[in-house]
Amino acid sequence: MKNQLIIVALSCLMLNCNRQSQKKDTVMTTEKFDVESFNKRKEKDPTYGGIITLEDGTVKKQSGPGIKGGAFEQITPPLPIFYKINKGYHKSTNILEAKGKIIGDLSIDTWQYFDEQGRLVKETDENVKFGKHHYNDALKFLEKEGWINLKTGEGRERFSLGYENNVWYITILSQPWNGNVETYYEVSANTMETLKKEVTQRGKE
Q1: What is the pTM of this model?
Q2: 150 SS3 class
């Protein structure tokens, strides 16, 4: 009888531990896109209703769910931070679907993906694609070239960034402030030397 009680107690303990382990391993999110609030702001101000500016300077740009997909939000932190945070939401439940950081349209750091009930289903480390290199190397190159200032955040909207096969692909966007001139670089990630540089003016060959 004593042995049976011990077996029952151990079985209950193991079952409880398994439940706790499963509970611990299941990461959930309750974050949802507030469609009602978004629609009210857009109705009141169709042009700027999708933009929220916080007291610290953080800017949230939102687009509501559409025919083909769910809502989307891009968060631009206050200066001097260079990354932005992208969030996509499930169309069916408005629950957070994906969340991660970008710099110049390039995905960086850890991205998380959730199912329609809010369960974490995948995490990816976007920095793996850089190998031994780091996106900060590209930012330092841009600062050296005079395009950005890492201390103040100046110029963080000026460029797009790409990476493949140990090469950084950098484009200084054509905008009115620079006379509609676009500057394109290919930079070796191994040496950070410029492999190619092209300067073109929009609307001209």
Answers
A1: 0.84
A2: coil
